[in-house]
Amino acid sequence: MEKNRSSKVGGCPGAGGEGREKTPQSRRRWRLTAVVGAVLALLLATAVSSRSFPKLWISSNSCKCPDARKYSGMVEDCCCDYETVNYINKEVLHPILQELVKSPFFRYFKVKLWCDCPFWPDDGMCHLRDCSVCECPDNEFPEAFKKPLRARSADDMVCQEGKPQAAVDRTLDSNAFNGWMEVNNPWTYDDETNNAEMTYVNLQLNPERYTGYSGTSTWRIWDAIYKENCPKYPSEELCSEQKVLYKLISGLHSSITVHIASDYLIDEATQSWGHNLEVLYDRVMKYPDRVQNLYFTFLFVLRAITKAADYLEQAEYNTGNSQEDFKAQSLARQLVFNPEIRAACPKPFDEAKLWKGEKGPELMLHIQKQFRNISAIMDCVGCEKCRLWGKLQVLGLGTALKILFSDNGNNNLNQPLQLQRNEVIALINLLNRLSESVKFVHEMGLTAENLMKGKVNATPDKNSS
Ligand SMILES: Cc1cc2nc3c(=O)[nH]c(=O)nc-3n(C[C@H](O)[C@H](O)[C@H](O)COP(=O)(O)OP(=O)(O)OC[C@H]3O[C@@H](n4cnc5c(N)ncnc54)[C@H](O)[C@@H]3O)c2cc1C
Q1: Does 208 sit in the ligand 1 pocket, CB within 6 Å?
Q2: Where are the domains of the chain?
Q3: Where FAD is bound, by residue (predicted)?
Q4: For residue 274, which phi and psi values (nearest 5 degrees)?
Q5: Which distant-in-sequence residues (6+ apart) come within 8 Å of 167 by Cβ?
Q6: Which atom of ligand 1 is nearest to the CA of 393?
Q7: Active site annotation includes 386
Q8: Residue 265: pLDDT over 50
Q9: How far apart are CA 87 and CA 55, in angstroms?
């Protein structure tokens, strides 16, 4: 995989200049700049947050070990460095998000689970029962999301997978959308056309992890996404906007793989699950651009959430459970107005640089079409659980795109933002998935690399007797 460092989208301060030769003069200049920089940084840190920011500063410079610093400096095309991302993710974002996604409001996702591929027939390549979505019992469902109960047979209540937390409630209630607009998202394929086919799924019962879904069916999907809808740069002609689309998809792909590696079925016979660091290394860590794209996608979605802070603070988090809803609202507020995040990463991604020039609006329509195609391809994923998470995360990305780049394709940023409840649920759950992936890569990436390099070195030389 090639890296392309030549064309920066964001043009963030401090993003360039790595790896230059240092002369004695430049070294003196550098020392002086470093001292002045440190003093300024200290003043800034004290002014912004006397309690938390200095901790970040120490964290960014604490480890000098060369391997651990492989991902250091600015995340390409973003306005935040790796060290800061790792710190705020671990200390601030991850704990808040883990709590938030457990709340009744954020744990139920409305989705059409039928495999309804508009491009080719489903070839059912999923072998494990873990591919299927586990349904949840009726009594777990928030009252505000419910329709009057329809008659159910006892069998309906039994989970497909034999687990007690069975039965997806496939009923819908229009009241569930009180206070939320049903608005079109030009970035996503409209999944709402036939509401009778929609169902609510408890995401907590259906973790994204290894399912055994692999082979030609999966490659056809990834191929269709990359080749037809978001070609890989570094074809230099590719503009910044297309590069962003590629990086978002590649970052999401990395995150899916990281979840497979972190929650892997180690032994099918004993049903034991655990980390698979070989998968982490072979499919993600070995390709630095895949790691970089994961961090990029994380910062892009974080930027969308902080940009929509006012909207997300005022949104109605209503499931009928006032205590839980109050908690969800207060966690959402902590997330979007967090002083540590705002001080450390005030603008994780600078969206204002995109869609410039005469061709901007035309290009936006073109890329919207490509993204809508990617969203439609999710109906072709031949494994139910993968389809669930694929749809959720692509909707989350589409929501981030809508927040950052208008909602009508005409770049009309003065339009007031309107989001659907399902979009907000997808956005927060996507950020949580990315946050888990960033944390796992940060904590286990180096171990995976050392382990795999050790394995390679330990392989006996065929030529030695
Ligand atoms: C939407 C979707 C959701 C899925 N969810 C799950 C799931 O929850 N659990 C599960 O077990 N499986 C899931 N899968 C399948 C999984 O993504 C892999 O396809 C499968 O594990 C086979 O992996 P692979 O090693 O053959 O390579 P794949 O991951 O299938 O990759 C195919 C090719 O894409 C390229 N590539 C790989 N990673 C990147 C990247 N980050 N950026 C750019 N290019 C890349 C490489 O050239 C690679 O050969 C999902 C698939 C899809 C399409």
Answers
A1: yes
A2: 51-64+73-457
A3: 209, 211, 222, 250, 253, 283
A4: -175, -170
A5: 135, 136, 137, 138, 152, 156, 157, 158, 159
A6: 1
A7: yes
A8: yes
A9: 9
